[in-house]
Amino acid sequence: MGWCDDSRSRKYNKEINLPTKFRAEKLYRKDKIYDLFINIEYNYKPTKKNKGSAIFLHLANKKYRPTKGCIAISKKDFLKLISSIKKNTKISIL
C-alpha cells in the first residue's frame, strides 16, 4: 500500500496499491513509523492539485528526526492520544 503524492495522478492524495507509475509514499516501512498513523485529511475533500498531500500523525523514529510535513510522536503518546479520539474528532494543527 502507498499514498499517492504525485499531482499527475487521478489518485493524488489517496491511498493506492503499489507498484504504480506515479510517485507515492510507501506505507509499509522498515523503520515502522507508519505502523500506527492517522490521516489528517488535509487537502482531502475536495483534493486540489499541488496543494499538499499525505499529512499524517504518525510514530516518531527513535531520534525524533524531523518529518517532511507530518506530525510525529512517540508510540506511548500516540496510544494515549488515540484512546481519546472519537468518530467525529477534529485534529487541528496550529
Describe the protein in words.
The chain is built from one helix and six strands. The strands form two sheets. The chain has a three-stranded antiparallel beta sheet, with no helix packed on it. Strands 4-5-6 form a three-stranded mixed beta sheet. It is globular, with a radius of gyration of 14 Å. The termini are far apart. The protein is mainly beta and 94 residues long. It has one helix at 75-82; strands at 2-4, 15-16, 24-26, 37-39, 56-59, 71-73.
Write the topology of this structure.
Blueprint lengths: L1 E3 L10 E2 L7 E3 L10 E3 L16 E4 L11 E3 L1 H8 L12
Parallel strand pairs: 5-6
Antiparallel strand pairs: 1-2, 1-3, 4-5
| Rg value | 14 Å
Task: Report the strand count.
Answer: 6
Q: Which runs of at least 5 residues are low in confidence (pLDDT < 50)?
A: none
Helix and strand run: EEEEEEH
Based on helices, strands and strand pairing, what is the structural class? mainly beta
Mean pLDDT: 92
Tally of alpha and pi helices: 1
The largest sheet has its strands arranged as 2-1-3
Q: Biggest sheet: strands, sense, closure?
A: 3 strands, antiparallel
Secondary structure: helix percent: under 10%
Strand content: 15-25%
Q: State the separation between the terminal residues, measured CA to CA.
A: 29 Å
Shape: globular
